[in-house]
């Protein structure tokens, strides 16, 4: 088989990797589908750049991605590396050998300069992914527009500029790749959820209505 491939440990299946990006996970829309419940619906992706291959954890899984047992965010792969997605594993083959140190993760570029509105868009984009769910996709343009009370067209224009600033290439899962990059750079962090305050056994927001906690009609 020409080019890089992954051999799935559980089944022995050998799957060639696409020329640019190969997605892997448990969902129906991925290129390589794994059935192990510890794998997220969209868990990680393989990226080919010339003769090089690296794996990117998409940052939306509790169980993460490992290479040869070590947790990674993004790492260049060498022939024979074992990549784990939760409890599922596969061995990489077909990667040309070269004199470099594969253990070194790719360095992330410095964060680009952002406007206040771009920060608002990124915060809204990443908010679902920072929840406690095992996997939640980033917000859609429509959801961001509703959150920020702006038009969907305006959000799409902001996203296009952000893809350029963060150098996110065209292709599938572009919003997810942008969200992953933003979270990895620490530009957006989880916002703690403040539970409603209770007073006298009733939630204050309810007590603010009519007596007895009933809301006025």
TrEMBL record:
Transmembrane segments: none annotated. GO terms for molecular function: DNA binding. Pfam families: FHA. Residues 194-217 are annotated as: Disordered. SMART domains: FHA. Keywords: Phosphoprotein. It comes from the Bacteria. GO terms for biological process: regulation of DNA-templated transcription. Residues 22-72 form the FHA domain. This is FHA domain-containing protein.
């Amino acid at each position: 088989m020409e080019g890089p491939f992954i051999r799935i440990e559980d089944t022995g299946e050998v799957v060639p990797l696409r020329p640019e990006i190969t997605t892997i996970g448990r969902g129906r829309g991925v290129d390589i589908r794994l059935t192990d419940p510890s794998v997220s619906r969209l868990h990680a992706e393989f990226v080919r750049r010339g003769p090089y291959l690296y794996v990117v954890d998409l940052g939306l899984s509790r169980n993460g991605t490992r290479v040869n047992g070590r947790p990674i965010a993004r790492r260049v792969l060498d022939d024979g590396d074992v990549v784990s997605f939760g409890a599922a594993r596969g061995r990489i083959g077909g990667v040309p050998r070269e004199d470099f140190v594969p253990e070194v993760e790719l360095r992330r570029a410095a964060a680009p300069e952002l406007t206040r509105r771009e920060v608002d868009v990124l915060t809204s984009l990443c908010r679902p992914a920072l929840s406690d769910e095992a996997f939640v996709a980033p917000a859609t343009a429509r959801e961001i527009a509703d959150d920020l009370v702006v038009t969907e067209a305006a959000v799409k224009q902001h996203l296009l500029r952000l893809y350029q600033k963060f150098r996110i290439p065209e292709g599938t899962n572009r919003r997810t790749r942008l969200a992953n990059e933003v979270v990895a750079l620490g530009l957006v962090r989880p916002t703690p959820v403040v539970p409603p305050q209770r007073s006298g056994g009733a939630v204050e927001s309810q007590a603010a209505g009519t007596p007895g906690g009933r809301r006025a009609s």
